[in-house]
Amino acid sequence: MLPTSLIQPLRRLWTLESFAYSLRVFIALAGVMALCWYLDDMGKLIPLFLGIIASALAETDDTWQGRLQALLVTLVCFAVAALSVELTFAHPVIFAVGLGVSSFGMTMLGAVGQRYATIATATLILAIYTMISLEQHGGVALGELWREPLLLVSGAAWYGAISVVWCALFSRHPLKLSLAHVFRELGVYLRLKSALFEPLRGMDIEQQRLALAQQNGRVVAALNQSKEMIFRRLEGQRGGRKLNRYLRLYFIAQDIHERASSSHYPYGALAEAFFHHDILFRAQRLLDQQGRACKALSRALLLDRPFDHGPSAQALEDFNASLNNLHAQGRDEWRDLLRSLSALADNLATLEDKLAGADNPDARADHEDSSLFDRSPRGPRDVIERLQAHVSLASPVFRHALRLSVTLVVGYGVLHWIHPTQGYWILLTSVFVCRPNFGATRRFLRQRIQGTVMGLVAGWALITLFPTEPVQALITVAAGVAFFATRAHHYTLATASITLMVLFCFNQVGDGFGLIWPRLFDTLLGAAIAGLAVLVILPDWQGRGLHRQAATTLEASAAYLRAILDQYARGKRDDLAYRLARRNAHNADAALSTTLGNVLLEPGHFRKDADVGLRFLVHSHTLLSYLSALGAHRGAAGAAGDDNTAVTAAADDVAETLARVARQLAAGETIESHQDTLTRHAGLLEASAAEETCDERRLLQNQLALISRQLVALSEAAGRLSIQASRE
């Protein structure tokens, strides 16, 4: 039994995403360190440690059965890579050819799926680790070809065994962490959304919407990660009560996301009309409290505690009371605005119900469609087709594979040309620094150099201060654990940690001080080669492809609109087709936000489209918000009105216009002006909505009118992007 003062910190540690990962690494590194000390054979320490690191880098989320299969594949790949390096190490020409071909092939596997990419990258890293280990031993001894591969693969197998057992014992824990992360990001999104209701004249709405679009990308990434985790565990395990509970929580998060991203009226008009009333303040407070409730739900999931959404429920009552007061005043000039506020009230009330349902997700109806779309390859034929689709200079994966293979071959040539001590660190630096685009490469290059300098300085100081081997062994293990604890979010600190670990590993078997200057020199040289390669070898400037990504966003929005209209015609059904259309629209919006983030890191000449792109992102995300409101209010079949052909025709025309603008933008053509048509549609829809008595049909007409007017601004932004693209 542990005291309460100790239990609470341990429970909080358990809720950290990196804690379990770091603990597995600690067990593996500490076990190897203890074994080498026990055998009095520290010469085995470096290859065993490197094998553990490579295996940990190859780890992906899965069930224990899937992780075991992945481990076996990984060990085979590691063994082949290590033996290949051993056999060709003394033949530079053959080695260079093999290095180029293998690095190209392994990078191309990224086109198949993330799991394949992770294992392939780890295999490439282990091959370089083999080179480092061989160089440290002065080459390959003819009678010991097996030695380095066996040690490297043994270290990898040791960590892999720990990983498989851990996964069998705690298979649901990563899923719980992932869903908690989803609700935490949703909480941030809702609180950002609440700022739009602040009753201020002249507020910078565009800046607020830009922040929302960027946060939406984080929400989408969290949802996608949870979906993949759930899908892997559902394979062959459907029916488990605990797993079905997580699946229902995921669908609740999707519903909350759709309602949170909804917009029912231009916020500036609402602020102008109700500036002297408290309705917008109530709406702002309600969204803020619902954001806090999402954050509380995240904590409740992590700590297995009850979830209380009382403050947000009270805020909803206050909002409804304020809205009823406005309705009671009966002012005609507010009629349309109050209808929009009533739709907002219905939306937020349903969102509150979803939050309440998250406390007992098992109450969600079992008859709903709970299927998930499988994006993983379905067999060898699918793998081949995906690879073939990327065998083109237009493919970013192909360009990166070619660029990385040339980078490594050039680095290998340089190290033979200048014969530096421990020169294979050049190749390792290039692998970690060389990224698919300039922005990411620039960021990792800077962080890699900074981290290496920090690690070398800290290593020099700590080796001097603690010359005894037991203390250095503890520091070695601690530094290795720190690398995995920080590499996802603090790469500079992670680089410093792994540099420190390497220094102390080498100091266990020789002179760690002798590695300081070679490591610094090789890092600078490898980073310079990688940076130059990204600049001159098929550079993938994100700004040049911005119009194509923007077109993809519009295409996905058009498909989402058609899926929504089909639901209004046939009745609400959260089937896979609808959820896939919705997810694709949000994925495209998130991808555009990520692309723009990369454009902002590119050199000035290639960054000239960034301002136009950011304006387009604001307009496209606003459009997605109007679409989300339509999707959130789907109801009974026939809501579009069988007798209202004008509304149906206008809706179809809006969807076709959106798709047409997307096609023209993708081709870099002049965007046709649809202002007159769209404005006419908006006027007709607003006139129909003013006379409509059915709330659901009126909301459909109002939202289509908002979408039509938004398309005018969106078409103008698309036209500017297309003009910029045609000048390239």
TrEMBL record:
Keywords: Cell membrane, Membrane, Transmembrane, Transmembrane helix. The keyword Membrane applies. The keyword Zinc-finger does not apply. Residues 71-355 form the Integral membrane protein YccS N-terminal domain. It is a multi-pass membrane protein. Its main location: membrane. NCBIfam families: YCCS, YCCS_YHFK. This is YccS family putative transporter. It comes from Chromohalobacter beijerinckii. The gene is yccS.
